Amino acid sequence: MAKKAMSRSDRLFEWGIDAFLVGVLVVTLVPMWYVAMVSLLPFGKSPSLLLPPWEWSFAAYAQLIFQPTIWRAALNSLLLTFGGVLISLTLTVLAAYPLSRRELPGRGFIVGLILFTFLFNAGLIPTFLVVKDLGLLNTYWSVLLNGAVSVYNLLVMKTFFQSLPESLEEAARIDGANDWQVLRHVVLPLSRPILLTIGLFYGVANWNNFFEPILFLSDRSLMPLPVVLRDILTGLNVAEYVEGGAAQAAPAEALKMAAVVLITLPMLLVYPWIQRYFTKGVLIGSVKE
Amino acid sequence: MNPAYPSKPAPQWRQSLKHLARSVWRHRVLYLMLLPGLLYFLIFRYWPLWNAQIAFRDFQPTLGVWGSPWVGLQHFLEFFNSYYFSQLLVNTLVISVAKIALGIPPAILLAIALHETSRRFLSRAVQTMSYLPHFLSWVIVYGILLAMLSPSEGLINSGLRALGLEPVPFLTSTATFQPVVVLSEVWKETGWSAILFLAALLSINPALYEAAAIDGASRWQQVRHISLPGIVDVLVLVVLLKIGSILDAGFHQIFVLYSLPVYSVGDIIDTWVYRQGIQNFQFSLATAVGLFKGVIGLVLIVVANRLARRFVGTGLY
Question: B52, A149: Cβ pair inside 8 Å?
Fold first, then answer.
């Protein structure tokens, strides 16, 4: 905004606004900073916000990084995240495209059928019984399939397809392309931003998912990172994750917080992309007919 | 057609049926594409609906859904007459309402501050950092909360001890658990919730601010008379949407944060359903409670949508 001669009240206003923003920044960052500080805590020191760098100890990280349990959980997480995105995006695109075509007979009915599941949920137990009856308990298919399609994402994608100029598809059809070819060669190349956005939506949800693995999986070796982190934090199985005399190498609270940092890092690495596409995504997400 | 014969109804519907069949056949590739998604919804969303009938049966896994004996409303009555009914409902509503009441004002304030500040760098930094917690799993936030609130080495309790006060077991005390749930949600989601309000502010015609400034309106008056009216529609929409899902008090969050000592204040409908159903194998009772919640939720969201259409002119779906 233009800086003109400001009245005193306006200066006060600007000062108040900026102070509030700095306050938000502090409240957001201090807890995360403190987690990092505790993770670097050496023995015999009490945690502090201002642990000087020459006292930092990376023993907790060294401990965790060599734990096979952590590596297996990381692989499990990667598998669930990327496998899930692949399945979810495929199903979402394949359903969204036909439903974006206004002339499709029965389209309104099918959209209604899908929308109803958005409004009414049969609940946890009936869904659990389906997964059980399908014999999917304790397999990754339970986690991958149960939450595969989000109605919200489906409707966002459908809205996007509807916004594409029809003349392009029309031209391809006149050239003899069938619907499948139109989707592959005309629609999808134009949809990269929305595919990335929705893919990230699914990816973040999968990476953070801890409840469905707990609900459907019983084999501990199948558990992804968030479940392992929860076990470490509740202190149930610290001994399992930190073998032998290793527990003496770093204080327990440093181990816990180092685990928090390690599991947050991948998210921080992709965060610039997430931020770019999510903020766009939340605004195109006007899910309306 | 021959005008001598008045057209009879039969050929006409037969013709339109033929027309429809031809149209369906012409779009067969599209239906084929729809098939996997449709199967997904039928299996994972409609089959559970069928299974939900065990709310009215006494489900025994060996007999299956269809073979278990009917008991009518027994499970519902048991739930309504139990002591935990009011407790669950109160916990769910208190936590939900507090999240709405304490969550929306900071989000509006943040959006207005981001919109008003003349420091671009500060604005960008705050946006980047305040959206971040939204993308963290509740398990990670639980770790952060432990670092802040743990009675032994948590930052806040170190502060209390430095002031000569007794440390407070925030996560395991019935007096503090609900505030922790509500405030941690506010910490995690304020930045993200501000986006919608910020978008509404950015869509206000800048000429309004310029005209007001020329007329001598102070910055605060501009916020009061231009910015706030500009976000009322979004505010109404957000509040209605939240009321529509008021029975969702944050299952994943509470599932991670709560523990036996705070069940009396932290147990919500969803966490109770999980424990009774999955851990205690009370499938029918848990399904009945889940169904009760689903039906109320459906009514609420439909009413909220009607209201949104009437007052804002646009619905939630």
Answer: no
